[in-house]
Fold this sequence. Notes:
This protein is an alpha+beta fold. The chain has two helices and six strands. It has a single domain, classed as CATH 3.30.1330.40. The strands form two sheets. It has a four-stranded mixed beta sheet. Helix 1 (46-63) runs parallel beside helix 2 (84-95). The termini are close together.
Amino acid sequence: MAMKHKAFEVEARSYSQACLVEAPKRWLYISGQTPTDADGAAPEAFADQCRLAWANIERQLAAAGMTLDNLVKVTTFLADRRWREANYTVRHEVLAGRSPALTVIVCEIYDPAWLVEIEAVAAD
């Protein structure tokens, strides 16, 4: 069953200014998901890395019996500001109309090969 939440000031760019969750049964805090596969390899292209990080988010959600519908907060770390629009494009594609609260931070990421890292909070 999809979580009941209310998004405030939904932006056209696939996020909300706030997301209210009333009386959740469970919370899931997902550590930063890197753009790496099971072997630790990261693709070179930003869009491929971004999709892989989102796939890793979805894998963690599935392990807890949740889906992208349960996301209430996402924080995306970008290695460079130039990835801003590509990040939006992939996020918009992946979230497909969902609008969790969102923060994007430009910073140095742990591994120089990683161009993106994504953490999330979900509830049901």
